[in-house]
């Protein structure tokens, strides 16, 4: 690992001041469960690391007049065990518990989960976020790509690694971001951007901005669930995730939000499937049809065709799981 300066600020203002406007100069350190491996692999070689875990204003889960505020350094374990989260946002609890290691849940933070870098092995081995050779040709398309996208956005073929992101998007969450010019809010959906070159980042964050909180609207009466398909129950990322949030009138769905994870460089909103459910009573057959619709338009690569069926199954099962919840 390259030697670095370590900063331990106690306010967001100081932390922002210790970052740099240039990527690569300084990195935010939260739980370190991703950053330290990036540094050990020399994928990140910051001159300075700014620890934000000691900043009190970044902690805690509070009910607000507009829903729930989750501080960026709340750990995945705190999230999954919080009573307010458990009562209204089961899809978020399921997503957090999907990170199967208690150690990672104890150290990893919600802000870090959203900001973690892609697990694409080309990226992690130094071929840039787009995984290209020196002539700009994609190594992913012609190489080993079984954990990559079926909804690519060329030239990006990696998948967004966050398990929380699909659930947060389906629930209509927003993030607060703070930088040298103050704070701004963004929908979680808009936090993820697709890089066009290897110099671009995959998050709508500047190098000297910090994700400070996640704001969830109330979800009372909204049935919501996450279903993940994994290769194994032990430590690993899901192969495919579906998170759903359903507004209901009696047994009729009035509107549905269905978001897929780990199938594209950003979470994918399954709009066709959402439209199919609106105004109908949800039955197992309709859930299966919505699953099929969610996979429409998939463009699998040589190793990812299997994910098409995983999308169908994950959406169907997430919908059936949500239906079991009492309104
Ligand atoms: C074996 C293993 C299995 C895993 N399985 C899953 C899984 O199934 N699903 C899943 O979603 N994740 C999974 N993870 C990832 C894990 O959830 C993340 O590593 C963790 O959430 C990152 O949080 P952290 O606080 O440790 O971030 P750090 O490692 O401290 O930071 C990660 C990145 O985000 C940046 N960052 C962190 N916080 C902020 C902030 N507030 N503002 C701006 N930038 C920030 C850092 O600079 C760094 O680039 C797994 C990790 C491991 C090691």
Annotation keywords:
327 residues; alpha+beta; Enolase-like, domain 1; five-stranded antiparallel sheet; 14 helices; 12 strands; 21% strand; binds flavin-adenine dinucleotide
Bound molecules: flavin-adenine dinucleotide
What is the alpha-carbon Rg in Å?
A: 19 Å
The number of helical runs is 14
Q: Biggest β-sheet: count, sense, barrel?
A: 5 strands, antiparallel
Distance between the termini: 51 Å
In brief:
With 327 residues, the chain is an alpha+beta fold. 31% of the residues lie in helices and 21% in strands.
Folded structure, characterized:
The structure is a single chain. Strands 4-5-8-6-7 form a five-stranded antiparallel sheet. A four-stranded antiparallel sheet has the order 9-10-11-12. The chain is globular. Helix content is 31%, strand content 21%. The termini are far apart. Helix 12 packs antiparallel against helix 13 and helix 13 packs antiparallel against helix 14. It has 327 residues and is of the alpha+beta class. The mean pLDDT is 96. It has a domain of 99 residues: Enolase-like, domain 1. Flavin-adenine dinucleotide binds next to strand 2, helix 6, helix 7 and strand 8.
Produce the secondary structure layout.
Blueprint: E1 5-7, H1 12-18, E2 26-29, H2 35-40, E3 48-51, E4 61-64, E5 67-71, H3 76-81, H4 83-88, H5 90-98, H6 102-107, H7 110-115, H8 121-124, H9 139-142, H10 164-170, E6 174-179, E7 182-187, H11 188-191, E8 210-216, E9 222-229, E10 240-249, E11 252-261, E12 268-269, H12 271-277, H13 284-294, H14 306-323
Parallel strand pairs: 1-3, 2-3
Antiparallel strand pairs: 4-5, 5-8, 6-7, 6-8, 9-10, 10-11, 11-12
Helix pairs in contact: 12-13, 13-14
The protein binds flavin-adenine dinucleotide.
